[in-house]
Description:
Strand order of the largest sheet of chain A: 1-8-17-18-16-19-20-21-22
Oligomer: heterodimer
Shape of chain B: globular
Helix content of chain A: 25-40%
Helix content of chain B: 40-55%
Distance between the termini of chain B: 58 Å
Number of strands of chain B: 12
Amino acid sequence: MKNLETVILDANEAVASVAYRLSEVIAIYPITPSSPMGEWSDQWKEEGKKNIWGSIPVVAEMQSEGGAAGALHGALQAGALSTTFTASQGLLLMIPNMYKIAGELTASVMHVTARAVATHALSIFGDHSDVMGCRSTGYAMLCSNSVQEAADLALIAHIATLESRIPFLHFFDGFRTSHEVNKIIPIGDEDIRALLDDSFVIAHRERALSPDRPILRGSAQNPDVFFQAREACNPFYRATPTIVQHVMDRFAAQTGRSYKLFDYAGAPDAERVIMLMGSGAGAAEETVLRLIASGEKIGILKIRLFRPFDASAFLSALPRTVQSIAVLDRTKEPGSLGEPLYQDVITALAESAADGTSRFAQNPRVVGGRYGLASKEFTPAMVKGIFDELKKKRPKNHFTIGIEDDVTHTSLSYDPEFSTEDPRTIRALFYGLGSDGTVGANKNSIKIIGSQTDNYAQGYFVYDSKKSGSVTTSHLRFGPEPITSTYLITKANFIACHQFSFLERMDVLAAVAPGAVFLLNTPYGPDEIWTHLPRKIQATILEKKLQFYVIHGYKVAQAAGMGNRINTIMQTCFFAISGVLPRDEAIVQIKKAIKKTYGKRGEAVVQQNFEAVDAALAHLHQVTVPGAVSATFDILPAIPAAAPQFVRDVLGTIAAGLGDSLPVSALAAGGTFPTGTAQWEKRNIAQEIPVWDKDICIQCGKCVMVCPHAVIRAKVFDTSYAAIAPSTFKTAKPKWRAMEQELYSLQVSPEDCTGCALCVEVCPVKSKSEAKHKALNMEAQLPLRSAENENWAFFESLPSVDRSRVNHGQVKDVQLLDPLFEFSGACAGCGETPYIKLLTQLFGDRLFIANATGCSSIYGGNLPTTPYTVNKQGRGPTWSNSLFEDNAEFGLGMRIAADQQKEFAEELLTRLAPIVGEDLAQATLSADQSTESGIEAQRVRVEKIRSILAKIETGVEWANARNLRAIADSLVRKSVWIVGGDGWAYDIGFGGLDHVLASGKNVNVLVLDTEVYSNTGGQMSKSTPRGAVAKFAAGGKPNSKKDLAMEAVSYGSVYVARVALGGSDTQVIKAFQEAEAHNGPSLIIAYSHCIAHGFDLVHGLEQQKAAVLSGYWPLMRYNPALRSEGKNPFQLDSKAPSIPLKEYAYREARYTMLARSHPEAAKTLLSEAQDDVERQWRVYSSRAAMPGRGETPHIAPPEGEEEVVAIGKGREE
Amino acid sequence: MIDLSTDYLGLRLKSPLVISSTPLSNVVGNVRQMEDCGAAAIVLPSVFEEQLSLESRALDHDLSRGTDSYSESLSYLPDFNDYRTGIDTYLEYLAKVKSSVSIPVLASINGATPGGWVRYAREVEAAGADAIELNTYALATDPGTSGSQVEQQLIDLVSQVRATIKIPLAVKLSSQFTSIPALAAGLDRAGVNGLVLFNRFYQPDFDIENLCVVPRLAFSRPDELLLRLHWVAILYGHIDTDLAITGGVHSAEDVLKGVMAGANVTMMTSAIHINGIGHIATILMGLKQWMADHEHESIRQMRGALSRRAVPDTSPFDRGNYIKTLSSYTLQQPAL
């Protein structure tokens, strides 16, 4: 064992551990990729872990990052040592407070997982654009390049801030560092104590506000003094670099790990130098060390303290011999002369040259370049490409590296084959499915190897953009030296493919090194597998002389009762054939890890994993590889050739995992994409799909309604199509009046189905001769795929039902309307997507959607393909995502614009009436668009107007005609929907939402209420119910869920509904229709079961029903229109609670895990939650029971004669 | 002075009225009340290995579902350091009950695997149980398993548990065995200290409206006692193990019948669900009253008085019972 004190963790955990121990108040808010730091803090707090002073920090989740920054500021002012964690947009929301905190010279540290800021698109991945947006706040900025550094510099930042009074922004690269698992030496309490001088802590407290020694801070200053006062901070900034270096030196003395403000590595007489900060330094330094060994005179300067920028330390860190420098920025500032670090370097060099203090033999030439935006790979090959460029007489300035810029030609070329991988390092790649446990097992393997051998270990995990059936790629390195390779593995000596189906569309051996080991999980044995491999895979196995092993992992897993969890089985195989550990010892260690990981979940889980491990080796076989390629088939393209060109060539390339190869010209500037693309990405993730029994189906449409992925659809069509239908295409007699003479079909898209089985679960029909047989039954997909594909294609070709023929208020009828939201990558069984799909069925062809950031913006708008689509006329939802916090306002803007354009169009039409025709103009201006047929008639009129206007090419009205043609569509009624989750509606966007609801504008708000921040991993929101466990509420949420519905009801003018598909699907449709019809703001709060609730989502609708039956989720509608009819606008659509809350709640792990871990607390919270339910029911039911228009008679002023009489009678009595 | 005391599993009990497994015993206050009302001992609710395994697996699935699939949400719930998934809760409760009452407390175990039976038995013994009742409710649904195989599996299982623990061991049996005396003798040889007759089958009901089979749990009826009386009366005196009757005991008369059949104790659940815990005192009072009225001095005195070997005419226990019932039935029919 090299060092017993090493630990294996990622930077988020390492940094949070330091921050937690050095804080008293931790203000948090979830944002990727920083959320785990808040989660760790909350969990440690629940576990009673103490900080360095022996107290448990307060961990407070706020409603937004802006709120967290405010709380941080306040806590600091009141004298607490405080911290926060954030990234990207979250950091931007903190900026106003950052100016204040820095302006007031307040010691504190915020830890930032540096992440791209949303511009033309959102990205959750790492670059420095967020951090660089904070340059002018006055924060010191300290950058860590690796997991070890993140731990170390976290401590250095906390110490330096106390000594300098300058607040620190400590940052490290999102995902690449924050989520990289590495073997590091942790910061011990003794390290903290050695560096921490309590006198600075006391000084911090003495500067705080206190009524016992009152002060005032935060004055308003006038032109006379503001400027001078602002300059008063200068000495502190001047002193800070020296303080930081001193702290670094003390840290080095304590730990042996030495850091400089600017760390140079490379040849002392280097002529070419690259400088950068962040994780890219790992790849760059590795390259430099490799190249100087072959005599190159090069070096790298790693920038650690970016602000305050110490020019003197910077200049003295560079070799005097340097002739050319490439300054790399991981950010883009469009329109600037260069990115921030480049500009600083230029300034520092220019100033030293200008004042004659330059120490260089000759003034070096400096070029700037951008790299690695949004976690774009940055590899030694690229580093070498840059050094090669620096050799040139006139190296390219303002270059990019890592992409092909064929538009403005900024990019440098490089040889991608160049590699600096240490041959002693074992490099293993694992392809898994999200649900099969591959990543978890690999994290365990890293711990085993890192702790039980002398090896260093590194793990980095890549996930695709889908939440269901996602492909995970694990990159593991093990070796005798510390692993600093901050890039993905491209030459693996071990590759495991844990899903046989991946071979169909992925070249899993693309990164295989010669002589490597290939492990495949497959139902085919060693003697039969060869014939089932695509040509390319066969060829690679032969060409690279791979050692090829197979195992039927699923067979072993199922025998052990583990279902699809093949994690420990594949892990056992990896150890058995990789030789990293002796086989027996490896099994002992795997079992130890199983016990540690699963022991707390119960002996049964441990035992089944043990059984799986023991059985694994018996099923592992080496394949005797034939001598030649024999396959007659090859890997299929990710997108079929029949797709439109852009979908095939661009989106298809991304879907194939080759998006890095796309040049700039392939992607439109501005971030606009066509809709209707998800249909082309066939993912085949369902092992079983529903099969229709037409003979017993009652055509109720519930399956169509509930399908989260719109893969099961119904149509009624003319009998003449039967003649050209595929032989296995099924039809039945429609159960609609006036449609009996046509044909009905219920069809499944086999390759798009996720196999969630919600449709089967909701099917109310049971066979009279075999109760388990329903009108829909799950059957194996593979044997059905081909025929059902043909049937699906035929079904798609059938005409859609005329929308005017069906009743848009009935589930049975709505099933026949085309969904314009299909095949999203949402979780299998998602509770949100059925509502969105319904929205598109009802109003999709005239629908604007403003979508808050969250799950719905990810499955709604994440590349490569997106689910919003168009109908046969080419109309469909138009969708956009602005931010998280501003979605209500964003949607309101859409509404205002649509209204404004309509008004302008009406004005133009009035002006042009003589040309268009008075009758047509009048009919258009006064059209009744309250019905589908009314809207369709208006579309026909608008088209007619357009064609008339198209003929006007000259004359006085030409300009008006041209303008009206451009906006004539606005004359057709549009529906604006503001869609988002509870994190947005209840928390970060609540202020805006409230304002929009108060605006009176005709917008509709759909809150997909999952009761947690689902997209970031289940953090508590104000919608989280009392007693439920969530991230940031590890002890169970102590207070009740906010009643957003009643807050909106309080306006009296807002249409409000609480709905749950499983409670009453008819009520859902009614609410959607009424909300849309309401000429004012509407709010629908939709119960959305979620994977974060901790139950099998196949029971999603049952859970929704239980929520309603228990009274937890009363169904209600508040329709202001009823008041004008003299009716109570408040209608209760569900009955009084008929089951106790416990019966609903204790089917979900979010509740039961508390009962299992903290039974007493759970009991108390459950009892209080039951009280909440009863209290809520009393309020709702009494509100619904109010007579008249819903006001109590003694409060409402008398309006009419009858009421006066009534009051008079009362007096008489 | 009327003596209600009896011996069961080597434990000296103040009366023959024992409370068998009931959810009411999940609350310490109820157990205390049972003791106050005169219950001689209680059998705690059964710990079901299958249930614990299922819950443990469910927790694992629930905490694993969706994890490590998407970069923004690598998990969905916080993971605690510990969960009470196993028998720990049961053991804690057992210890708590033990410290709260002075009457004997019997643990009840329903295992699913050989390892589970033995492990649980060892653990409840360590937690302070005065005795263990093995609840061997199992259904043979495999046509390939013969009756003798089922019986042998049971005997083997009991032998394993017996070898593991030192405290007394009772086995609760199903009535669905071909030869109950032979099985009882086998269990006797295996070292079991008591037999509890019988488990009640929780037969599911059919919901013909919704075409589904639903679990049904109904209270026992007094007429269910007859089956128990029958077999206890047959076994009494032929085996060394103690005997207990459970199922259908609702009144003082039922207790007396059970004792006279040969039971050391009678066990009750449904009657206190129906009548409340105070029913225990009512029964004991009735018991004393009946004994006083009939000048019986002690329970021990009357035990087995109506057992098969104690009655002059054994035909009611034998095939004669069947024939007699039928023949008396024919006499009641109108003449053709």
